[in-house]
Design brief:
The chain is about 45% helix and about 20% strand. The two termini are about 35 Å apart. The protein folds into 2 domains: about 170 residues, Rossmann fold, CATH 3.40.50.1970; about 180 residues, Dehydroquinate synthase-like, alpha domain (Up-down Bundle), CATH 1.20.1090.10. It has about 375 residues and is an alpha/beta fold. The structure holds nicotinamide-adenine-dinucleotide and zinc ion.
């Protein structure tokens, strides 16, 4: 299935979006843009890119959409720039180009541009229309659905933000051709997680797919998105079942923060892959997940992610970091675990000794 064209309808959920929700268009951008833009009238178009997407993606975007009149805002790339200073730059430029409530903002970039550009559009003059054009695999499968917008603040990742849906999302794999291989691979962890909480069939398919810009990519993306959508639709504000999407993230976040503290940052997906291995191990013990699922998952993840240099000397700090996780309630470390593919169990607590065992399991069975 090379060029499938799929529409995924997302319900409205948040107050100030269209009553009939919005559509994620997956397939060739030229078709989907024409279909969506149709008779819509905007007073002006603002495109937000980062330094890399301005050079790699903007020319393709303009060719495919035929847009020729627009204002461009280019932000510095990277998570370290997903902050108030960049928002100030964006809002100032919006003011200078006279963006108003009838303008359209197009966020052309990865999750950083999507989260921050969406946040700026949702708040400037109390909000104007925006669309997301995700250009990384992670942003296509994860950030494009869920309505979370925002920036990092002080030490809090995603510490300031809002829930707000875009007018539409346009997913075209053409943008992924310039994405660094490491970024492409990193997204596999979230896709694998979606498959694990999706169904046995999805999980089995993902076990046999290695991320690449290939004929299967678009159908893998839409399969992944559909799973996220199921959990999002049931619980948009993450009060209960949406927490299923946190599988792999309690230990994964601690691992990510630890390497950042050590001055050796790793990509989010690389940390989540390790978190998934540890948390599937916990799932075998706590929820009766068949050990065969754990073993086959390890094989699949090994095909994509090299082992991380996790050692016993890090355990105390990793546990401390888990204690600080914002998902915790009543001082207990909160996990989402798995009973079987398609059947996650939220709000599980596990004692420290078992968490340490899961890290030892990773070292013994993944890192060797
Ligand atoms: N809103 C949500 O639900 C949600 C979900 C997951 C992640 N996120 C957020 O997304 C961010 C991570 O997203 P990301 O991984 O896309 O990171 P990113 O936006 O920083 O992109 C990664 C790198 O790839 C570059 N890039 C982007 N597209 C490119 C392309 N097509 N060709 C070449 N280079 C390209 C970027 O400039 C950047 O250097 C985090 O801030 C995270 O919090 C949000
Ligand atoms: Zn994640």
């Amino acid at each position: 299935m090379a060029d499938i064209f799929e529409h995924i309808k997302i319900a409205p959920h948040f107050g100030n979006t269209h009553p009939d929700g919005y559509t994620v268009y997956a397939g060739p951008l030229s078709d989907s843009w024409a279909k969506w833009h149709g008779s819509r009238q905007y007073s002006g178009i603002v495109i937000i890119c980062d330094e890399n997407t301005a050079s790699c993606c903007l020319p393709i975007f303009l060719t495919k959409t035929g847009i020729d009149a627009f204002s461009l805002i280019v932000t510095k790339s990277g998570e370290q720039n997903k902050n108030l200073q960049s928002c100030q730059q964006i809002w100032t430029e919006m003011l200078n180009i006279c963006a108003d409530r009838k303008s359209l903002c197009i966020n052309l970039g990865g999750g950083v541009v999507g989260d921050m550009g969406g946040f700026c559009a949702a708040t400037f003059k109390r909000g104007f229309d925006f669309v997301q054009v995700p250009t990384t695999l992670l942003a296509q499968v994860d950030a494009s659905v869920g309505g979370k917008l925002g920036i990092d603040f002080e030490t809090l990742k995603n510490g300031v933000g809002v829930f707000q849906n875009p007018e539409a999302v346009f997913i075209d794999t053409v943008f992924l051709r310039t994405l660094p291989e490491r970024e492409l691979r990193s997204a596999y962890a979230e896709m694998f997680k979606h498959a694990l909480i999706g169904s046995e069939q999805e999980w089995a398919t993902m076990c046999h797919w290695v991320p690449a810009v290939d004929a299967q990519l678009l159908s893998r993306i839409t399969a992944s998105l559909r799973i996220k959508k199921v959990y999002f639709d049931k619980d948009p504000f993450e009060r209960n079942v949406r927490k299923s999407l946190n599988l792999g993230h309690t230990i994964g976040h601690a691992v990510e923060s630890h390497f950042l503290e050590m001055g050796q940052p790793i990509l989010h997906g690389e940390a989540i892959a390790a978190g998934l291995v540890c948390e599937l191990y916990l799932s075998v013990i706590d929820c009766g997940l068949p050990s065969e699922i754990l073993e086959k998952s390890i094989q699949a993840l090994k095909g994509v992610f090299s082992p991380l240099p996790i050692s016993e000397g890090m355990f105390i700090n990793l546990l401390n970091l888990m204690q600080q996780d914002k998902k915790n309630e009543n001082g207990q470390i909160n996990f989402t675990l798995l009973e079987k593919p398609g059947k996650p169990k939220i709000n599980r607590t596990v004692d420290s000794a078992l968490i340490i065992s899961s890290l030892k399991f990773y070292i013994k069975n993944y890192a060797n």
